[in-house]
Amino acid sequence: MINRRIAAVVLRIASALGGLGTMSLIPVSLAADNTPIVLGAVLPLTGDAAHWGIPVRNGAELAVDEINAAGGLGGRTLKLVVEDDRCQPAEGVAAFDKILASPSPTLPAILGAVCSGVTLAMAAQAEAHKVALISPASTSPKVTDAGDFVFRVIPSGDLRGKIFAEFLYQQRGLRKIAVLHIDNEGGVGGSNAFKAEFTQLGGTIVFQEKYPPGASDLRAQLAKIKATDADGIMVGSYPPDTIVVLRQARELGLSQPLFVQTEAVQNPEVLREVGAAANGVHYILAAAAAGAAPDRFVRAYEAKFGHKPELFAAEGYDVVRLIADAVTVHAGETVTGSDIRDFLYRVRDYAGASGTITFDRNGDVIKPYAIRTIEAGAPKTVLVK
User: Fold this and answer.
1) What pTM does this model have?
2) If you count DSSP H runs as helices and E runs as strands, how many of each does the chain have, helices first?
3) Exposed/middle/buried for 65, CB within 10 Å: 0-12, 13-18, 19+?
4) Pairing state of beta strands 282-286 and 369-375?
5) 10 Å Cβ neighbour count for 151?
6) Dihedral through CA 335, CA 340, CA 341, CA 345, nearest 10?
7) What's the rounded Cα separation, in Å, for the pair 193 and 110?
8) Would you call the peptide bond into 113 cis, given omega within 30 degrees of 0 as the criterion?
9) pLDDT tens across 270-294, in order?
10) What are the structural domains of the chain?
11) Residue 120, CB half-sphere, CA atoms under 13 Å: how many?
Protein backbone atom coordinates (compact mmCIF):
# COMPACT_ATOMS: atom_id res chain seq x y z
CA MET A 1 0.00 0.00 0.00
CA ILE A 2 3.04 2.29 -0.23
CA ASN A 3 1.82 4.17 -3.31
CA ARG A 4 -1.63 4.71 -1.84
CA ARG A 5 -0.17 5.98 1.43
CA ILE A 6 1.94 8.50 -0.45
CA ALA A 7 -1.17 9.52 -2.37
CA ALA A 8 -3.06 9.79 0.90
CA VAL A 9 -0.49 12.25 2.29
CA VAL A 10 -0.72 14.37 -0.86
CA LEU A 11 -4.50 14.33 -0.71
CA ARG A 12 -4.52 15.37 2.95
CA ILE A 13 -2.29 18.32 2.10
CA ALA A 14 -4.56 19.20 -0.83
CA SER A 15 -7.57 18.98 1.46
CA ALA A 16 -6.02 21.40 3.92
CA LEU A 17 -5.08 23.86 1.21
CA GLY A 18 -8.52 23.53 -0.37
CA GLY A 19 -10.29 24.55 2.81
CA LEU A 20 -12.29 21.41 3.55
CA GLY A 21 -12.82 22.75 7.03
CA THR A 22 -12.46 21.24 10.48
CA MET A 23 -15.45 18.91 10.25
CA SER A 24 -14.70 15.43 11.52
CA LEU A 25 -16.76 12.28 11.67
CA ILE A 26 -17.45 10.84 15.11
CA PRO A 27 -16.94 7.05 15.12
CA VAL A 28 -20.22 5.15 15.53
CA SER A 29 -20.89 2.98 18.56
CA LEU A 30 -22.88 -0.20 18.05
CA ALA A 31 -24.08 -0.25 21.64
CA ALA A 32 -27.81 -1.01 21.89
CA ASP A 33 -29.76 2.07 20.89
CA ASN A 34 -33.04 2.78 19.14
CA THR A 35 -31.51 5.49 16.94
CA PRO A 36 -30.99 4.36 13.33
CA ILE A 37 -27.45 4.39 11.94
CA VAL A 38 -27.07 6.29 8.68
CA LEU A 39 -25.17 4.90 5.72
CA GLY A 40 -24.53 7.66 3.19
CA ALA A 41 -24.40 7.22 -0.57
CA VAL A 42 -23.39 9.70 -3.27
CA LEU A 43 -24.85 8.69 -6.64
CA PRO A 44 -26.15 10.26 -9.88
CA LEU A 45 -29.94 10.06 -9.58
CA THR A 46 -30.44 12.68 -12.30
CA GLY A 47 -28.33 13.72 -15.28
CA ASP A 48 -26.39 11.72 -17.86
CA ALA A 49 -25.35 8.89 -15.52
CA ALA A 50 -28.70 8.38 -13.75
CA HIS A 51 -29.14 5.20 -15.84
CA TRP A 52 -26.35 3.74 -13.70
CA GLY A 53 -26.92 5.53 -10.41
CA ILE A 54 -30.55 4.52 -9.89
CA PRO A 55 -29.84 0.75 -10.13
CA VAL A 56 -26.98 1.19 -7.63
CA ARG A 57 -29.42 2.86 -5.24
CA ASN A 58 -31.95 0.07 -5.76
CA GLY A 59 -29.37 -2.63 -5.03
CA ALA A 60 -28.26 -0.75 -1.92
CA GLU A 61 -31.87 -0.41 -0.71
CA LEU A 62 -32.38 -4.15 -1.12
CA ALA A 63 -29.28 -4.86 0.98
CA VAL A 64 -30.45 -2.45 3.69
CA ASP A 65 -33.88 -4.10 3.78
CA GLU A 66 -32.32 -7.52 4.22
CA ILE A 67 -29.92 -6.33 6.91
CA ASN A 68 -32.73 -4.71 8.89
CA ALA A 69 -34.96 -7.77 8.51
CA ALA A 70 -32.15 -9.82 10.05
CA GLY A 71 -31.85 -7.51 13.10
CA GLY A 72 -29.86 -4.56 11.75
CA LEU A 73 -26.34 -3.71 12.86
CA GLY A 74 -25.78 -4.63 16.46
CA GLY A 75 -29.52 -4.38 16.98
CA ARG A 76 -29.72 -0.93 15.41
CA THR A 77 -31.62 -0.15 12.21
CA LEU A 78 -29.60 0.83 9.17
CA LYS A 79 -30.88 3.84 7.20
CA LEU A 80 -29.69 4.59 3.68
CA VAL A 81 -29.37 8.29 2.82
CA VAL A 82 -28.65 8.99 -0.85
CA GLU A 83 -27.44 12.35 -2.15
CA ASP A 84 -27.64 13.16 -5.88
CA ASP A 85 -24.32 14.21 -7.44
CA ARG A 86 -25.64 14.45 -11.04
CA CYS A 87 -22.23 13.11 -12.12
CA GLN A 88 -20.73 16.50 -11.23
CA PRO A 89 -17.55 16.47 -9.07
CA ALA A 90 -18.42 19.69 -7.19
CA GLU A 91 -21.85 18.35 -6.32
CA GLY A 92 -20.31 15.11 -5.15
CA VAL A 93 -18.02 17.02 -2.79
CA ALA A 94 -21.00 18.97 -1.44
CA ALA A 95 -22.97 15.74 -1.00
CA PHE A 96 -20.08 14.16 0.91
CA ASP A 97 -19.94 17.16 3.24
CA LYS A 98 -23.69 17.02 3.78
CA ILE A 99 -23.58 13.36 4.77
CA LEU A 100 -20.75 13.90 7.23
CA ALA A 101 -22.54 16.86 8.76
CA SER A 102 -25.65 14.78 9.49
CA PRO A 103 -26.87 15.09 13.09
CA SER A 104 -27.72 11.38 13.07
CA PRO A 105 -25.17 8.66 13.92
CA THR A 106 -23.43 8.14 10.58
CA LEU A 107 -21.16 5.30 9.54
CA PRO A 108 -17.62 6.34 8.52
CA ALA A 109 -18.15 4.76 5.10
CA ILE A 110 -19.82 6.01 1.93
CA LEU A 111 -21.19 4.19 -1.10
CA GLY A 112 -20.05 6.12 -4.16
CA ALA A 113 -19.58 7.36 -6.62
CA VAL A 114 -20.56 6.05 -10.04
CA CYS A 115 -18.76 8.66 -12.14
CA SER A 116 -14.97 8.49 -11.84
CA GLY A 117 -14.59 12.26 -11.65
CA VAL A 118 -16.89 12.39 -8.63
CA THR A 119 -15.10 9.54 -6.86
CA LEU A 120 -11.75 11.23 -7.42
CA ALA A 121 -13.10 14.57 -6.19
CA MET A 122 -14.35 12.94 -2.96
CA ALA A 123 -11.15 10.96 -2.39
CA ALA A 124 -9.40 13.87 -0.64
CA GLN A 125 -12.31 14.16 1.80
CA ALA A 126 -12.30 10.42 2.42
CA GLU A 127 -8.61 10.54 3.27
CA ALA A 128 -8.84 13.68 5.40
CA HIS A 129 -11.76 12.38 7.47
CA LYS A 130 -10.75 8.69 7.43
CA VAL A 131 -13.96 7.59 5.76
CA ALA A 132 -14.01 4.42 3.63
CA LEU A 133 -15.21 5.36 0.14
CA ILE A 134 -16.33 2.40 -1.97
CA SER A 135 -17.29 2.90 -5.60
CA PRO A 136 -19.65 0.51 -7.37
CA ALA A 137 -18.80 1.68 -10.88
CA SER A 138 -15.84 4.10 -11.24
CA THR A 139 -13.29 2.68 -13.68
CA SER A 140 -10.75 5.49 -14.13
CA PRO A 141 -7.18 4.21 -13.70
CA LYS A 142 -6.58 7.20 -11.40
CA VAL A 143 -8.80 5.64 -8.73
CA THR A 144 -6.06 3.04 -8.11
CA ASP A 145 -3.86 5.66 -6.43
CA ALA A 146 -6.63 7.92 -5.11
CA GLY A 147 -6.00 7.12 -1.44
CA ASP A 148 -5.76 4.49 1.25
CA PHE A 149 -9.48 4.72 2.09
CA VAL A 150 -10.70 4.40 -1.51
CA PHE A 151 -11.98 1.07 -2.90
CA ARG A 152 -14.05 -0.15 -5.83
CA VAL A 153 -15.90 -3.36 -6.66
CA ILE A 154 -15.52 -2.98 -10.44
CA PRO A 155 -12.22 -3.55 -12.26
CA SER A 156 -10.00 -0.67 -13.33
CA GLY A 157 -10.27 0.85 -16.78
CA ASP A 158 -6.61 -0.08 -17.30
CA LEU A 159 -7.59 -3.74 -17.50
CA ARG A 160 -10.67 -2.94 -19.57
CA GLY A 161 -8.63 -0.96 -22.11
CA LYS A 162 -6.00 -3.69 -22.36
CA ILE A 163 -8.52 -6.47 -22.96
CA PHE A 164 -10.52 -4.45 -25.49
CA ALA A 165 -7.39 -3.44 -27.41
CA GLU A 166 -6.22 -7.05 -27.54
CA PHE A 167 -9.64 -8.10 -28.82
CA LEU A 168 -9.64 -5.54 -31.64
CA TYR A 169 -6.05 -6.22 -32.65
CA GLN A 170 -5.75 -9.97 -32.15
CA GLN A 171 -9.29 -11.29 -32.54
CA ARG A 172 -10.68 -8.83 -35.09
CA GLY A 173 -7.42 -8.14 -36.91
CA LEU A 174 -7.87 -4.35 -36.87
CA ARG A 175 -4.81 -2.14 -37.31
CA LYS A 176 -6.13 1.43 -37.67
CA ILE A 177 -8.55 2.78 -35.10
CA ALA A 178 -10.37 6.08 -34.66
CA VAL A 179 -11.07 7.07 -31.05
CA LEU A 180 -14.02 9.23 -29.97
CA HIS A 181 -14.80 9.66 -26.27
CA ILE A 182 -16.66 11.74 -23.72
CA ASP A 183 -14.50 14.33 -21.97
CA ASN A 184 -14.60 13.18 -18.34
CA GLU A 185 -12.39 11.05 -16.11
CA GLY A 186 -13.95 7.78 -17.22
CA GLY A 187 -13.80 8.63 -20.90
CA VAL A 188 -10.26 10.01 -20.83
CA GLY A 189 -8.85 7.26 -18.59
CA GLY A 190 -10.47 4.46 -20.55
CA SER A 191 -9.39 5.78 -23.96
CA ASN A 192 -5.82 6.37 -22.77
CA ALA A 193 -5.56 2.80 -21.51
CA PHE A 194 -6.95 1.48 -24.79
CA LYS A 195 -4.65 3.61 -26.96
CA ALA A 196 -1.55 2.65 -24.98
CA GLU A 197 -2.21 -1.08 -25.39
CA PHE A 198 -3.37 -0.90 -29.01
CA THR A 199 -0.28 1.01 -30.15
CA GLN A 200 2.00 -1.26 -28.12
CA LEU A 201 0.53 -4.22 -29.99
CA GLY A 202 1.43 -2.51 -33.27
CA GLY A 203 -1.79 -0.72 -34.13
CA THR A 204 -2.23 2.93 -35.14
CA ILE A 205 -4.62 5.57 -33.84
CA VAL A 206 -5.57 7.50 -36.99
CA PHE A 207 -8.04 9.89 -35.34
CA GLN A 208 -8.83 10.92 -31.79
CA GLU A 209 -11.23 13.51 -30.46
CA LYS A 210 -13.26 14.15 -27.32
CA TYR A 211 -16.64 15.76 -26.83
CA PRO A 212 -18.29 17.41 -23.80
CA PRO A 213 -20.83 15.60 -21.60
CA GLY A 214 -24.34 16.31 -22.81
CA ALA A 215 -23.31 16.61 -26.48
CA SER A 216 -26.30 16.12 -28.77
CA ASP A 217 -24.66 16.53 -32.18
CA LEU A 218 -21.55 14.56 -33.08
CA ARG A 219 -22.01 14.62 -36.84
CA ALA A 220 -18.89 16.72 -37.41
CA GLN A 221 -16.66 14.29 -35.50
CA LEU A 222 -18.25 11.26 -37.16
CA ALA A 223 -17.88 12.83 -40.61
CA LYS A 224 -14.16 13.30 -39.96
CA ILE A 225 -13.87 9.67 -38.94
CA LYS A 226 -15.74 8.57 -42.06
CA ALA A 227 -13.12 10.36 -44.15
CA THR A 228 -10.22 8.47 -42.52
CA ASP A 229 -8.91 5.03 -43.39
CA ALA A 230 -9.78 3.71 -39.92
CA ASP A 231 -10.96 0.11 -39.97
CA GLY A 232 -12.79 0.49 -36.65
CA ILE A 233 -14.07 3.13 -34.22
CA MET A 234 -13.53 2.92 -30.46
CA VAL A 235 -16.15 4.97 -28.59
CA GLY A 236 -16.05 5.86 -24.90
CA SER A 237 -19.59 7.03 -24.12
CA TYR A 238 -22.35 7.25 -21.52
CA PRO A 239 -25.93 6.15 -22.31
CA PRO A 240 -27.32 9.49 -23.61
CA ASP A 241 -24.39 10.15 -25.95
CA THR A 242 -24.28 6.49 -27.01
CA ILE A 243 -27.74 7.06 -28.45
CA VAL A 244 -26.39 10.11 -30.30
CA VAL A 245 -23.35 8.25 -31.67
CA LEU A 246 -25.27 5.21 -32.88
CA ARG A 247 -28.08 7.19 -34.49
CA GLN A 248 -25.82 9.69 -36.23
CA ALA A 249 -23.28 7.08 -37.34
CA ARG A 250 -26.12 5.25 -39.05
CA GLU A 251 -27.49 8.50 -40.46
CA LEU A 252 -24.09 9.36 -41.99
CA GLY A 253 -23.63 5.85 -43.35
CA LEU A 254 -20.41 5.02 -41.55
CA SER A 255 -19.08 1.68 -42.73
CA GLN A 256 -16.51 1.19 -39.98
CA PRO A 257 -17.59 -1.12 -37.13
CA LEU A 258 -18.25 0.49 -33.73
CA PHE A 259 -16.68 -0.73 -30.49
CA VAL A 260 -17.98 0.90 -27.31
CA GLN A 261 -15.68 0.79 -24.28
CA THR A 262 -18.44 1.14 -21.68
CA GLU A 263 -21.56 -0.72 -20.60
CA ALA A 264 -23.77 1.94 -22.19
CA VAL A 265 -24.88 -0.07 -25.23
CA GLN A 266 -26.57 -2.66 -23.02
CA ASN A 267 -28.69 -0.03 -21.27
CA PRO A 268 -32.38 -0.85 -22.00
CA GLU A 269 -33.17 2.75 -22.94
CA VAL A 270 -30.30 2.84 -25.42
CA LEU A 271 -31.51 -0.35 -27.08
CA ARG A 272 -35.08 0.96 -27.21
CA GLU A 273 -34.05 4.32 -28.67
CA VAL A 274 -31.59 3.20 -31.35
CA GLY A 275 -33.22 -0.05 -32.45
CA ALA A 276 -31.40 -1.73 -35.32
CA ALA A 277 -28.56 0.82 -35.16
CA ALA A 278 -27.14 -1.15 -32.20
CA ASN A 279 -26.90 -4.42 -34.10
CA GLY A 280 -23.30 -5.46 -34.69
CA VAL A 281 -21.88 -3.07 -32.12
CA HIS A 282 -19.36 -4.67 -29.76
CA TYR A 283 -18.81 -3.44 -26.20
CA ILE A 284 -17.05 -4.47 -23.00
CA LEU A 285 -18.25 -4.73 -19.41
CA ALA A 286 -17.57 -6.70 -16.24
CA ALA A 287 -18.56 -10.31 -16.85
CA ALA A 288 -21.88 -11.43 -15.42
CA ALA A 289 -21.55 -13.23 -12.10
CA ALA A 290 -22.70 -16.81 -11.64
CA GLY A 291 -23.42 -18.94 -8.60
CA ALA A 292 -25.64 -19.08 -5.53
CA ALA A 293 -25.07 -15.49 -4.37
CA PRO A 294 -25.91 -13.84 -7.72
CA ASP A 295 -28.92 -16.11 -8.14
CA ARG A 296 -30.29 -15.18 -4.70
CA PHE A 297 -29.75 -11.51 -5.46
CA VAL A 298 -31.61 -11.68 -8.78
CA ARG A 299 -34.61 -13.39 -7.18
CA ALA A 300 -34.74 -10.88 -4.32
CA TYR A 301 -34.33 -7.92 -6.67
CA GLU A 302 -37.13 -9.10 -8.95
CA ALA A 303 -39.39 -9.64 -5.95
CA LYS A 304 -38.78 -6.09 -4.69
CA PHE A 305 -38.69 -4.11 -7.92
CA GLY A 306 -40.67 -6.27 -10.35
CA HIS A 307 -37.93 -6.59 -12.97
CA LYS A 308 -34.46 -8.00 -13.46
CA PRO A 309 -31.54 -6.03 -11.97
CA GLU A 310 -29.92 -3.49 -14.25
CA LEU A 311 -26.19 -2.86 -14.57
CA PHE A 312 -24.48 -1.96 -11.28
CA ALA A 313 -27.44 -2.92 -9.08
CA ALA A 314 -25.46 -5.93 -7.83
CA GLU A 315 -22.41 -3.76 -7.17
CA GLY A 316 -24.50 -1.36 -5.06
CA TYR A 317 -25.85 -4.32 -3.11
CA ASP A 318 -22.36 -5.73 -2.53
CA VAL A 319 -20.93 -2.44 -1.26
CA VAL A 320 -23.61 -2.18 1.42
CA ARG A 321 -23.18 -5.82 2.40
CA LEU A 322 -19.40 -5.41 2.69
CA ILE A 323 -19.77 -2.30 4.85
CA ALA A 324 -22.28 -4.13 7.06
CA ASP A 325 -19.91 -7.08 7.44
CA ALA A 326 -17.07 -4.73 8.36
CA VAL A 327 -19.24 -3.10 11.02
CA THR A 328 -20.67 -6.36 12.37
CA VAL A 329 -17.27 -7.72 13.38
CA HIS A 330 -17.12 -4.80 15.83
CA ALA A 331 -20.52 -5.43 17.40
CA GLY A 332 -20.75 -3.67 20.76
CA GLU A 333 -17.73 -1.52 19.96
CA THR A 334 -17.05 1.85 18.41
CA VAL A 335 -16.43 1.53 14.67
CA THR A 336 -14.03 3.85 12.85
CA GLY A 337 -13.32 4.37 9.18
CA SER A 338 -9.93 2.79 9.73
CA ASP A 339 -11.66 -0.34 11.05
CA ILE A 340 -13.77 -0.57 7.89
CA ARG A 341 -10.76 0.13 5.67
CA ASP A 342 -8.68 -2.56 7.35
CA PHE A 343 -11.52 -5.07 7.03
CA LEU A 344 -11.83 -4.40 3.31
CA TYR A 345 -8.11 -4.96 2.74
CA ARG A 346 -8.54 -8.38 4.33
CA VAL A 347 -11.47 -9.41 2.11
CA ARG A 348 -10.63 -12.52 0.11
CA ASP A 349 -12.93 -14.46 -2.25
CA TYR A 350 -16.09 -12.79 -0.96
CA ALA A 351 -19.07 -14.38 -2.72
CA GLY A 352 -20.90 -11.26 -3.85
CA ALA A 353 -23.93 -10.66 -6.02
CA SER A 354 -21.60 -9.04 -8.57
CA GLY A 355 -19.08 -11.87 -8.43
CA THR A 356 -16.16 -12.95 -6.28
CA ILE A 357 -14.50 -9.99 -4.55
CA THR A 358 -10.90 -9.73 -3.37
CA PHE A 359 -9.31 -6.31 -2.87
CA ASP A 360 -5.65 -5.87 -3.75
CA ARG A 361 -3.21 -3.54 -1.97
CA ASN A 362 -4.63 -0.60 -3.95
CA GLY A 363 -8.25 -1.26 -3.08
CA ASP A 364 -8.92 -2.49 -6.62
CA VAL A 365 -10.89 -5.63 -7.38
CA ILE A 366 -9.89 -8.08 -10.08
CA LYS A 367 -12.80 -9.57 -12.00
CA PRO A 368 -13.13 -10.93 -15.54
CA TYR A 369 -14.47 -8.79 -18.37
CA ALA A 370 -16.91 -9.85 -21.07
CA ILE A 371 -17.00 -8.62 -24.65
CA ARG A 372 -20.51 -8.66 -26.02
CA THR A 373 -22.31 -7.68 -29.20
CA ILE A 374 -25.90 -6.85 -30.09
CA GLU A 375 -27.66 -9.33 -32.36
CA ALA A 376 -31.28 -8.74 -33.37
CA GLY A 377 -31.60 -6.21 -30.56
CA ALA A 378 -30.30 -8.54 -27.82
CA PRO A 379 -26.89 -8.83 -26.10
CA LYS A 380 -24.73 -11.85 -26.92
CA THR A 381 -21.45 -12.73 -25.20
CA VAL A 382 -18.49 -13.09 -27.56
CA LEU A 383 -15.59 -13.54 -25.13
CA VAL A 384 -14.93 -13.65 -21.38
CA LYS A 385 -11.43 -12.86 -20.19
Assistant:
1) 0.89
2) 12, 16
3) middle
4) antiparallel
5) 28
6) 140
7) 28
8) yes
9) 999 999 999 999 999 999 899 999 9
10) 2-154+290-357 (3.40.50.2300), 158-286+369-384 (3.40.50.2300)
11) 16
